[in-house]
Design goal:
431 residues, alpha/beta, 14 helices
Length: 431
């Protein structure tokens, strides 16, 4: 147990990670040594930033807390604090069930943790953070909360209504990170499409990305979690205009049958979904679309699932993930629907959908053989360098394995020729 050292453990999404990074900077300013490595906890104080999105994530968070409670009982740590989405949603229950935790904080009151430790949140460092990612890329969170209220989703219950961050503050943060060597920016929010509507009374994502792309030193901008309803179509000319805005869009679609879209409260129809995707691909040639789909939501019929499979065949998504429905207390689906689809049926549908996607991904990757693409190098392995193209977000998308014939620098851009392909990896050589 190292005195004056704080270990921060982040569970869940990259939005949580941004909060942890800002908190780490404040701890450092306050004079603590700060570490972010869940596998090697050695500090006298531990802070767990939890996820409470779905059952598996909640279970992971609770298991992590209990493991640290055990360490505290063995006097391997002195203080244990818990923050984030799980604590936001279940604070009273957690305080009763796990009294060994010194204090619980929610999603938005983590600044109080500093004062509870006898320190002060220093507004002068409000934009600064300690990056836990490789130093060449960072996540930029542009909003909190969500106004969509999809029937199955607990996010609005946890995080509240949509709150856009001021554009000038976001751009200032990007400039600061560029000055520290960051080249690649993953722009994140629960719903990018809605950005600005609450603050400026109009959709401002196109202007934000246009201005961000014009900042010298910004190498790549990648967009995560657009929403199909109220999509800001003015974004598409911006993506086409700027070479540093990656031809990549992460847009969670969840389903396509009108029956399911209605039950899910998705505010969009099958026809509108097809028209949206066709327009995106027409206006931004070569764009790679990432989406997530859900199977097994209450009321999903065999016909609905067949429609979903046909949708995947029609759209040939370059990047796709899928998951089974998980009933979340407090949501419309939990209150008004019966979770009526057996787990084995959900799992079989998921497997079938992902098997279909794997064959599509393999064909798309094979089509890249012979192409010359720009990559950024993330790390060096024993046998190759590992990089990504503009079509690949860290940790979720395919990687490019680059021959070590020539020494490369981590965090630099290079041109490579694709020589071979697998469903979720490309093989390349330096041009």
């Amino acid at each position: 147990m190292v005195k004056n050292r704080i270990d921060i453990i982040t569970l869940g999404c990259s939005k949580n990670l941004v909060d942890s990074e800002h908190l780490m900077r404040q701890f450092a300013v306050a004079g603590y040594e700060v570490r972010h490595d869940a596998a090697r906890v050695t500090g006298e104080i531990v802070v767990v930033n939890t996820c409470g999105f779905i059952g598996d994530a909640k279970e992971e968070s609770v298991n992590m807390i209990l493991a640290l409670v055990d360490k505290k009982a063995k006097r391997k740590i002195r203080k244990l604090y818990v923050m984030g989405c799980l604590a936001e949603r279940y604070r009273k229950d957690l305080e009763t069930e796990i009294p060994e935790v010194d204090k619980f904080y929610g999603k938005f009151d983590w600044k109080d943790l500093l004062s509870d430790l006898g320190k002060t949140y220093d507004e002068r460092y409000d934009l600064e953070r300690v990056l836990t990612t490789p130093p060449h890329y960072a996540y930029i969170k542009i909003a909190e909360g969500c106004n969509r209220f999809c029937s199955y989703c607990a996010i609005p219950i946890i995080t509240g209504r949509y709150v856009s961050y001021p554009m000038e503050k976001i751009l200032e943060e990007v400039e600061l990170l560029v000055s520290q060597g960051v080249k690649e920016f993953q722009v994140i929010a629960q719903d990018l499409s809605y950005y600005g509507l609450d603050l400026y009374k109009e959709l401002k994502l196109p202007e934000l990305i246009d201005r961000m792309a014009s900042i010298p030193g910004v190498g790549w901008i990648r967009l995560h979690y657009a929403y199909p309803s109220q999509f800001p179509y003015d974004l598409l000319p911006v993506m086409k205009k700027h070479k540093n805005v990656c031809k990549y869009l992460d847009i969670a679609l969840q389903h396509v049958s009108d029956n399911m879209l209605d039950k899910m409260h998705r505010h969009v129809t099958r026809k509108e979904t097809y028209e949206l995707l066709e327009r995106i691909r027409r206006e931004v040639p070569g764009i790679h679309i990432r989406t997530t789909l859900m199977v097994g939501h209450p009321g999903e019929t065999g016909a609905d699932f067949e429609e979903l499979k046909q949708f995947v065949k029609d759209m040939r998504f370059e990047r796709m993930g899928a998951f089974t429905y998980s009933e979340e207390e407090g949501t419309f689906s939990a209150r008004h629907y019966t979770d009526d689809i057996p787990e084995d049926v959900k799992r079989a549908r998921l497997d079938e959908l992902m098997e279909l996607q794997e064959s599509i991904a393999a064909e798309i990757n094979t089509g890249k053989i012979g192409e010359v693409l720009q990559v950024i190098v993330d790390r060096e392995e024993d046998d190759y360098y590992v990089g990504r193209t503009e079509y690949d977000s860290p940790e979720v998308d395919p990687e490019v394995l680059i021959s070590k014939d020539t020494p490369l620098n981590i965090g630099e851009f290079y041109k490579v020729r694709i020589t071979d392909a697998m469903p979720f990896e490309l093989i390349a050589e330096l041009v």
